[in-house]
């Protein structure tokens, strides 16, 4: 099992836009490079991608939450 | 009624600027801040501070009820909106007026009128200010085609209610206009809830020149012009006062046109009229008015000696302009560069770090407007502007040399900044010659001019 951490401080989003479903749901397969969320930093949106493969366990923070650099965003099994 | 207790409804470097100007005037300062901004410099410098909500702008710096409540709690008699956020919101200005407070800016009606591109254009034409040939009012997609036929291609399509470059498209011919006009309409509806369009002849590769004005509701004066042609994604990165490309006669008629419009709308406070300048034809065209203090106001202060922020506070408190046009003299040349928390070598990716070291540029004719201090975590929730380095010298050449020295002296550790971009620009032959326009910087970056200098500037 491993954690996906935030590369930057900012606001973390689970979804590509408010109307769409989250990038990943518990039980989804995650491949290296898969996008799991978005970080909004200084009015710019930056993709958060998985650096390891696994099975998506869940988001560790709520959608649209301020996070610090290094904060755990999601967990993989 | 002179202002005694000023509430600053903004953040970052402009909040610092307003607090300092108010203190010089002997005014009690009350700094608003979000939960993410408790450590910011303006909070420390102000006489008092009050939290107006959570980090997201919509819950704090854009939250009109929260701001008015905080202003009431702290017994403020006036609100300074800074730039951005609510500074050009007629709804905010009106709410401030209705709460019995002074809005440090023009009236809500003036903001509303000049914020609408079509109404602003009509006001300009009525005051005899040249405008780009275009549609007489807001139009629909069908009318766009017939207007374009009359004024000639290429044409620019804008959202009538837009701002900040959003919704702008250029059509080279009728076929393109047929494709782009419906897209512009849909985008305008989505962004502004108003699908009204506006089209005008596209002036390709213009220079951006703007005139600083001050008004007291009756009288108005200008503080000469600025040139802000070096832009990336329609954001200014480097600004100068004055515009070297203008001859004296053109400068005089440009500035006179700005004063005529300011007087025609009974302007109060500091404002800026933006123009496109077609250098080959030596023609200028009014494009829009910004009814607030601007980021680049310091270059005007450097060449004229006028404290624009203090003057806007005084006139909005009911004073007459403290100077006549004849008393506003211009000396030398000033340049401002914007320092942003971005990595210029990584496509300007935002990079809000913790400021580990801070060494400010110093010297005669050097000014550094910023909100940094050592140990400060730059919040990631707002725009990336950290501050501005401003230099003033006898000539433009000497100002560029002074800018290089200032940027080399300055040290900001722990975060990325765009200082390297400005050093590269300062060493470019075309920038040195003043041979640029609004479409110059992006191709220059795409051609790798910045990465080529990385060894020296990084």
Automatic annotation (TrEMBL), chain A:
Function recorded in the entry: This protein is a component of the acetyl coenzyme A carboxylase complex; first, biotin carboxylase catalyzes the carboxylation of the carrier protein and then the transcarboxylase transfers the carboxyl group to form malonyl-CoA.
Protein name listed in UniProt: Biotin carboxyl carrier protein of acetyl-CoA carboxylase
The protein's annotated pathway: Lipid metabolism; fatty acid biosynthesis
GO cellular component, one term: acetyl-CoA carboxylase complex
Single annotated GO MF: acetyl-CoA carboxylase activity
Keywords: Biotin, Fatty acid biosynthesis, Fatty acid metabolism, Lipid biosynthesis, Lipid metabolism
Region (Disordered): 1-27
Swiss-Prot/TrEMBL GO biological process terms: fatty acid biosynthetic process
Lipoyl-binding domain boundaries: 3-76
TrEMBL record, chain B:
One Pfam family it belongs to: Biotin_carb_C
Domain ATP-grasp: 121-317
Superkingdom assignment: Bacteria
Keywords: ATP-binding, Biotin, Ligase, Nucleotide-binding
Molecular function as annotated in GO: ATP binding; biotin carboxylase activity; metal ion binding
The UniProt record lists the keyword Nucleotide-binding: yes
SMART domains: Biotin_carb_C
Keyword Ligase: yes
SUPFAM superfamilies: Glutathione synthetase ATP-binding domain-like, PreATP-grasp domain, Rudiment single hybrid motif
Family matches, as PROSITE patterns: ATP_GRASP (PS50975), BC (PS50979), CPSASE_1 (PS00866), CPSASE_2 (PS00867)
EC number: 6.3.4.14
Domain Biotin carboxylation intervals: 2-446
Role of this protein: This protein is a component of the acetyl coenzyme A carboxylase complex; first, biotin carboxylase catalyzes the carboxylation of the carrier protein and then the transcarboxylase transfers the carboxyl group to form malonyl-CoA.
Protein's UniProt name: biotin carboxylase
């Amino acid at each position: 099992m491993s954690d996906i951490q935030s590369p930057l401080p900012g606001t973390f989003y689970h979804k590509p836009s408010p109307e769409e479903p989250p990038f990943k749901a518990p039980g989804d397969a995650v491949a290296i490079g898969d996008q799991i969320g978005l970080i909004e930093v200084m009015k710019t949106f930056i993709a958060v991608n998985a650096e390891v493969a696994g099975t998506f366990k869940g988001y560790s923070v709520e959608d649209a939450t301020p996070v610090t650099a290094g904060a755990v965003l999601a967990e993989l099994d | 009624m002179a202002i005694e207790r000023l509430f600053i409804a903004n953040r970052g470097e402009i909040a610092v600027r307003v607090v300092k100007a108010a203190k010089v005037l002997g005014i009690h300062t009350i700094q608003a801040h979000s939960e993410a901004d408790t450590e910011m410099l303006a909070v420390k410098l102000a006489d008092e501070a009050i939290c107006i909500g959570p980090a997201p702008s919509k819950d704090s710096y854009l939250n009109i009820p929260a701001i008015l409540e905080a202003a009431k709690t702290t017994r403020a008699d006036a609100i300074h909106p800074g730039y951005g956020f609510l500074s050009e919101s007629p709804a905010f200005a009106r709410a401030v007026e209705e709460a019995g407070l002074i809005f440090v800016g023009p009236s809500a009606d003036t903001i509303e009128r000049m914020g609408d591109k079509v109404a602003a254009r009509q006001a300009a034409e009525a005051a005899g200010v040249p405008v780009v040939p275009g549609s007489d009012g807001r139009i629909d997609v069908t009318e766009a085609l017939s207007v374009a036929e009359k004024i000639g291609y290429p044409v620019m399509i804008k959202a009538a209610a837009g701002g900040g470059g959003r919704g702008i498209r250029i059509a080279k011919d009728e076929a393109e206009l047929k494709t782009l006009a419906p897209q512009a309409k849909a985008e305008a509806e989505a962004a502004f809830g108003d699908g009204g369009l506006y089209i005008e002849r596209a002036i390709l590769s213009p220079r951006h020149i703007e005139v600083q004005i001050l008004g007291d509701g009756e009288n108005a004066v200008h503080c000469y012009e600025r040139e802000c042609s070096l832009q990336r994604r329609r954001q200014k990165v480097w600004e100068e006062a004055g515009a070297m490309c203008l001859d004296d006669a053109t400068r005089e008629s440009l500035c006179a046109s700005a004063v005529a419009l300011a007087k025609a709308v009974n302007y109060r406070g500091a404002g800026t009229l933006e123009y496109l300048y077609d250098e080959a034809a030596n023609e200028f065209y009014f494009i829009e008015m910004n009814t607030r203090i601007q980021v680049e106001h310091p270059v005007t202060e450097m060449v004229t000696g006028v404290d624009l922020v203090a003057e806007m506070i005084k006139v909005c408190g009911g004073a007459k302009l403290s100077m006549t046009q004849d008393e506003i003299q211009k000396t030398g040349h000033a340049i401002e560069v914007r320092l942003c928390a971005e990595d210029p070598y990584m496509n300007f990716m935002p990079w809000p770090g913790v400021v580990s070291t801070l060494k400010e540029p110093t010297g005669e004719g050097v000014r550094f407007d910023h909100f940094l201090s050592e140990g400060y975590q730059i919040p990631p929730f707002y725009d990336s502007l950290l501050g501005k380095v401003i230099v003033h010298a006898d000539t433009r050449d000497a100002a560029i040399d002074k800018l290089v020295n200032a940027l080399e002296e300055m040290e900001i550790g722990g975060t990325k900044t765009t200082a390297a971009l400005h050093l590269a620009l300062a060493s470019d032959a075309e920038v040195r010659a003043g041979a640029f326009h609004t479409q110059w910087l992006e191709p220059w970056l795409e051609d790798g001019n910045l990465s080529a200098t990385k060894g020296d500037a990084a």
